[in-house]
């Protein structure tokens, strides 16, 4: 067999404005490149403790069982489901996008009796319809997506939490796209379990999934009659590794990924959460002004529109793939395609974490104008950028 030589991989520089991953700061990249130490090294255990404290601050919770699961956001989803569900348990899953559907699939694989409460992609649920479904089905767990990445829809939570608990169910919340980009109030909303991912508004590369469990959820786990379906994600063992009292070895943690998450959380808390949320909203409003000035529309009603993930309708006659390919090839800008019934009908433009900046908004709008005109559009020169700049000026005065 002939000898093959490979050159070191050199990734291209991109402006990441898709549904994830988002851009990563030099500080986080530097942390990832720090020397690897052992997963039971006293200094690494100190980092774990600090990471837990910062995760509680970002989740806005005092939950003792708060940690970073080794794996992406989907691993966090699976960890929450398999630890709360035993074979035969009932789980109500609210499905209005791809990731609600994935939660239902995970629950079925864990042996749950699953009922899906469904809404069209891009819409959200009312507390009344969830209350009615819980009264009829009586689920142990009710799962819902806070920020549906596939559609750009933001689900209101507080009133839904009230009806979930009044119906005797526990609330499981997907915060993959919302955590650190818009308010997530785990304790105030009485969320029993929640999971997120590092690659969205936390602006850390994918590889870890922050999770948090209420005391009520922990009690339910402790009362299980069967073993958790996943050894790797079994919180009864994983939590002992994260506990200051036991530090029982479970698996070798991704050391350097935890360095990166620690650095990213430091950046989040140094910015201060309210200011971070305001930054994301300000850039979303500027993008919206620019997009509309180019003659485009949003796919989600304003009342339930995500500020960190913008689902924009593709105009009639415009080739979805050609525009995305031109953005990437000529301008180095990545945006996302639509999923499910929105495929070919929407672009998903992420403004998350480090990627949420005026520079990125203005560069994207200028590039998009060029791409639309290349498809035969008649965008007025500079209209999108001018509208975005006007939005920034207005926000500075308010």
Automatic annotation (TrEMBL):
Tell me its family: Belongs to the class-V pyridoxal-phosphate-dependent aminotransferase family.
Lineage, uppermost ranks: Bacteria, Pseudomonadati, Planctomycetota, Planctomycetia, Planctomycetales
Q: Which UniProt keywords apply?
A: Aminotransferase, Pyridoxal phosphate, Pyruvate, Transferase
Note whether Transferase occurs among the keywords.
yes
Keyword Transferase tagged: yes
Please report the organism this UniProt entry assigns to the protein: Planctomicrobium piriforme
User: What does the record give under GO molecular function?
Assistant: alanine-glyoxylate transaminase activity; L-serine-pyruvate transaminase activity
N6-(pyridoxal phosphate)lysine modifications at:
200
**Cofactor(s) this protein requires:** pyridoxal 5'-phosphate
Protein name as annotated: Alanine-glyoxylate transaminase / serine-glyoxylate transaminase / serine-pyruvate transaminase
Q: Give one Pfam hit by family name.
A: Aminotran_5
